[in-house]
Automatic annotation (TrEMBL):
This is Transcriptional regulator SutA RNAP-binding domain-containing protein. Pfam families: SutA-RBD (PF20661). Residues 6-39 form the Transcriptional regulator SutA RNAP-binding domain. It comes from the Bacteria.
Length: 105
């Protein structure tokens, strides 16, 4: 049996019912200012931000980029022209009835 997908409406209703149950059991909800939950003792947690290391120098790769662009230019100029395929054409008689097929280039 396939489990039906939960919709946003179902999730919203479930969260509302859980909040209602919490409040009915004399639970209290505290209002917290935006951004406070990410602070530790009023400061940002600097151990996970990732700016602790010094800036690294980048390796210039201009010659690699130039080689790639040169290959792209060579690739577009060396492609052979596209050959047109022959098409079938119907030959009709004077009364509009088909007589035969011919190949036309």
């Amino acid at each position: 049996m396939i489990k039906p997908k939960t919709t946003k409406r179902d999730t919203r209703e479930e969260l509302e019912s859980l909040v209602d149950q919490f409040i009915k059991k004399n639970g209290t909800i505290q209002q917290i200012n935006m951004g406070e939950s990410g602070l530790i003792d009023g400061k940002y947690n600097m151990s996970h931000i990732g700016f602790n290391e010094p800036k690294q120098d980048r390796t210039p790769l201009n010659h690699v980029v130039a080689a790639i662009q040169q290959r792209k230019q060579n690739k577009t100029t060396t492609t052979p022209p596209i050959k047109k395929r022959p098409k079938k054409k119907v030959i009709y008689d004077d009364f509009g009835d088909p007589i035969r097929w011919i190949w036309e280039e």
